[in-house]
Design a protein that fits this description.
It comes from Streptomyces labedae. It holds the Pfam family Catalase_C. It catalyses: 2 H2O2 = O2 + 2 H2O. This is Catalase. Residues 1-83, 660-684 are annotated as: Disordered. By secondary structure, the chain is α+β, with helices and mostly antiparallel strands. The protein has 3 domains: 131-434, Catalase core domain (Catalase HpII,  Chain A, domain 1, Beta Barrel), CATH 2.40.180; 502-581, Up-down Bundle (Hemocyanin, N-terminal domain), CATH 1.20.1370.20; 594-750, 3-Layer(aba) Sandwich (Rossmann fold). The protein has 18 helices and 20 strands. The protein has helices at residues 3-16, 68-73, 108-118, 213-220, 236-244, 249-256, 303-312, 316-326, 382-387, 406-423, 505-513, 516-531, 536-547, 551-561, 605-617, 687-698, 711-715, 731-743; strands spanning 131-140, 158-167, 182-190, 193-200, 270-271, 276-279, 285-294, 332-341, 347-348, 351-352, 368-377, 400-401, 594-598, 621-626, 630-632, 639-641, 643-644, 655-659, 702-706, 725-727. The strands form 4 sheets. Strands 1, 2, 3, 4, 5, 6, 7, 8, 11 and 12 form a 10-stranded antiparallel β-sheet that branches. α15 links the parallel β13 and β14. The chain is globular. The structure holds CIS-heme D hydroxychlorin gamma-spirolactone. CIS-heme D hydroxychlorin gamma-spirolactone binds next to β2, β3, β4 and α10. Residues 125-128, 131, 164, 166, 183, 185, 198-200, 205, 210, 213, 273-274, 356, 389-391, 407, 410-411, 414-415, 418 line the site of CIS-heme D hydroxychlorin gamma-spirolactone (HDD).
């Protein structure tokens, strides 16, 4: 059906027909290109029509080229060609000496095609290999202008961005919803050059000094002998390391908490982690920490759900992000800063700002919003954009400078270095996704994969042969000038400052800030992870770490492991909780939430139509589940089922609604048509529906039933009067209550003992 393929086939047939030139061509010249065929963009049921997906934008909102033209050039013209632009008439058969004869070595098309294929894969990222990206725009509020001269943070400036979210430990093909930290890296294509904010969804890090990065990563990666487990921290080497290296305690506690299993990339915070130094137009400096706050709130999966997802839909987060953007439910984050005076000791309220295992509670230093990011376009090509994007903490713009955080210092080396292996040479900034939108006039030359054709004869400074060009700029012309901070004099030492040695006060603050249900999740996570370790010594040592955080945490995990709980070896820190760390207790927008509506031929299809329309109206996504695929019902109320009992699983839905009597199970009489035998007692619902309801209930999801749908609840052991279970007389009224429940993310009352 593809018109371009049809056109190509026509030319192929003409050539094979033996004429020396196509009928519409001039002998000796290639046939003219057929007119460009616009491919229709069809909306995908049940999502609303997608926005323009016609390809990468060639011009940014500021009018500068995005570099995307180049990407299109690789696909210009409508005829299939080889890499040199010569048209091909057949790409399905090798050149042979007769149809059954040997393949000829002279088949240059075969050799080129296989050679390129053999080299299609590049090394995956050594960490953060698995990820998903999206384009968007950052709108500055201008509120940061007092503390930074960065042009993109001036009032009303819009800057194109590309964001890549990732897991850390797993390989490129690993599952999305593993327990792990998530990367949150943003590339701002500013008019003063590229600024990368390479952060995570957790505000602290495992190590205080970059020299420990290979250690923590080797410990977290699969065991080197058998290369298992994939994308997991629940194994001996990880817990061996973090129990010995107690500065990892805070980060470990964070990702044993709910932030280790986010519901969606759209519902994660992002943190720059380190303290950065901002410089304003007068040269005054301010220390800051960067925060991304999702408009949808910070929400997580529950562990049982996360594990089911990894089997059922390993691409869950990737799909969720792309589907939401395609449906027009653009995710948004506010960028904010915590600001601290740039004092010589670089501490705030006794907290060492150079120690990346510390947070500064928001109650002590509120996060001040400085702009809004909206992700509104999916990548056109995963490899060219998401895989080839290269972030670097040293991609800075005037007004944003680094501090002496020793973790940041090592990163300033590592990110450039890794691209040489991963992207095959030093010219990765020329790849379309990495190209700055500001004019580039560097004196970097040659190297692997050089695509620029430089002019002039004097790529050196100073020169007279190229007229002295290009010229260096001063501060008034937007040059990047390092802040002339005073460096403390000292001896050369391999040591950490004394202030880096408290590894338990901040973890204790985190624990005390959690709600009861979040604490249950943390206890469950430690019990699971340590229960997967073979070495008892590692479990015992970790219990000692937990004893130094909190006795209840330690004793509950010890109970689960069947081990005695040790006494703390340090005095328990006297710290105030930080309520901002808890994810439970608020209400948030429901945009992009997925509602599964279960029905069958006997269901209230009119009601389902009304619910479906109202769900779409509310910016959410309805998925109709019926016994089989295809159409449910007949006449005006007929509906298309997006999922059948074979393809549906609870994990896809944030809430489940039952519209009418449940379809009978496969063993029930007359079950094939979804109806019970005439006159027979109501048949037991399909066991897959029962399972779906049980999972949704166990995972704290809203469940609603009307028009007889409630009959399935009893079979699933779901009490009709349980919290978050709605039984009502019409679909729209059921949806109203489901919306209210969804605003709190989950029915928290259901989690009395973990989940
Ligand atoms: Fe890193 C990738 C975030 C410490 C070395 N890191 C990488 C990515 C993120 C982070 C989000 C993926 C970027 C992408 O999507 O392409 N890394 C962090 C944070 C850290 C951190 C928030 C601590 C605050 N990283 C860190 C250290 C080192 C590295 C201490 C080395 C000394 N990180 C790398 C790397 C990666 C990387 C090896 C792998 C692929 C890449 O850089 O481009 O260079």
């Amino acid at each position: 059906a593809n018109p371009v393929r049809r056109a190509a086939k026509k030319v192929t047939e003409t050539l094979q027909g033996g004429t020396s030139a196509p009928a519409d061509g001039i002998p000796g010249r290639p046939a003219p290109e057929p007119p460009t065929v616009e491919r229709p963009v069809e909306p995908r049921e049940p999502l609303p029509p997608k926005p323009d997906q016609s390809g990468p934008a060639t011009v940014s909102p500021t009018g500068s080229p995005t570099g995307a033209d180049q990407a299109r050039m690789a696909q210009s013209g409508s005829h299939l060609t080889n890499a040199q632009g010569t048209r091909l008439y057949d790409t399905d058969h090798s050149l042979k000496a007769g149809p059954r004869g040997p393949v000829l070595l002279q088949d240059h098309h075969l050799r080129e095609k296989i050679m390129h294929f053999d080299h299609e894969r590049i090394p995956e990222r050594v960490v953060h290999a698995r990820g998903a990206g999206a384009h968007g725009v950052f709108q500055s509020y201008g509120t940061a202008s007092a503390v930074t001269k960065a042009g993109f943070l001036a009032p009303d400036v819009e800057t194109p961005v590309f964001v890549r979210f990732s897991t850390v430990v797993g390989s490129r093909g690993s599952a999305d919803t593993v327990r792990d930290t998530r990367g949150f890296a943003t590339k701002f294509y500013t008019s003063e050059g590229v600024f990368d904010l390479v952060g995570n969804n957790i505000p602290v890090f495992f190590i205080q000094d970059a020299i420990k990065f290979p250690d923590v990563v080797h410990a977290a990666k699969p065991h080197p002998d058998r290369e298992i487990p994939q994308a997991q921290s629940a194994h001996d080497t990880f817990w061996d390391f973090v129990s010995l290296h107690t500065e990892a305690t805070h980060h470990t506690l964070f990702f044993m908490g709910d932030r280790g299993i986010p519901r969606s990339y759209r519902m994660m915070e992002g943190f720059g982690v380190h303290t950065f130094r901002l410089v304003n137009a007068e040269g005054r400096t301010t220390l800051v920490k960067f925060h991304w706050k999702p408009k949808l709130g910070v929400h997580s999966l529950v562990w049982d759900e996360a594990q089911l997802i990894n089997g059922n839909d390993p691409d869950f987060h990737r799909r969720d992000l792309a589907d939401a953007i395609e449906a027009g439910a653009y995710p948004q984050w506010e960028l904010g800063i915590q600001t601290f005076p740039d004092t010589p000791d670089q501490t705030f309220e006794g907290i060492d700002l150079l120690d990346p295992t510390n947070i500064v509670p928001e109650e002590l230093a509120p996060v001040q919003p400085i702009g809004l990011m909206t992700l509104n376009r999916n990548p056109s090509n995963f490899f060219a954009e998401t895989e080839q994007v290269a972030f670097h903490v040293g991609h800075l713009v005037p007004g944003i400078d680094v501090t002496d955080d020793p973790l940041l210092a090592g990163r300033l080396f590592s990110y450039l270095d890794t691209q040489i292996t991963r992207l095959g040479g030093p010219n990765f900034p020329q790849l379309p996704i990495n190209r700055p939108h500001a004019p580039v006039n560097d004196m970097l030359r040659d190297g692997m994969h050089q695509t620029a054709v430089h002019r002039g004869v004097a790529p050196y400074q100073p020169n007279s042969l190229d007229g002295g060009c290009p010229f260096t700029a001063g501060a008034d012309m937007g040059a990047y000038i390092e802040t002339p901070v005073t460096v403390p004099e000292g001896r050369k030492v391999r040591e950490a400052p004394e202030s880096f040695s408290d590894h338990f006060s901040q973890p204790r603050r985190f624990w005390l800030s959690m709600s009861p249900v979040e604490r249950e999740h943390i206890i469950g996570a430690y019990t699971f992870e340590l229960g997967k370790c073979y070495e008892e010594a590692i479990r015992v040592r970790t219990l000692q770490v937990l004893a130094n955080i909190d006795p209840e945490l330690c004793s509950r995990v010890a109970d689960g492991l069947g081990l005695p709980a040790p006494e703390p070896t340090v005095p328990l820190a006297d710290v105030e909780p930080s309520p901002a760390l808890s994810q439970v207790g608020g209400t948030w927008p429901v945009d992009g939430r997925v509602i599964g509506v279960l029905t069958g031929p006997d269901g209230d299809l009119e009601g389902v139509h009304a619910v479906r329309d109202a769900v779409l109206e509310a910016g959410m996504i309805p998925l109709v589940v019926a016994p089989t695929g295809g159409t449910v019902g007949t006449g005006d109320h007929a509906l298309t089922a997006q999922r059948s009992h074979v393809t549906a699983r609870s994990i896809e839905f944030d809430a489940v609604m039952l519209a009418g009597p449940p379809a009978a199970g496969p063993d029930a009489p007359g079950a094939t048509d979804g109806k019970g035998a005439p006159g027979a007692a109501p048949a037991a619902p399909d066991p897959r529906v029962v399972q779906l309801l049980q999972e949704a209930f166990r995972h704290g999801k809203a469940i609603a039933a009307w028009a007889g749908g409630e009959a399935a609840l009893a079979s699933a052991g779901v009490p009709a009067d349980a919290p978050g279970v709605v039984v009502t007389d019409s679909g729209p009224s059921a949806l109203d209550q489901v919306r209210t429940l969804l605003a709190s993310h989950r029915v928290w009352e259901r989690f009395t003992s973990g989940g």
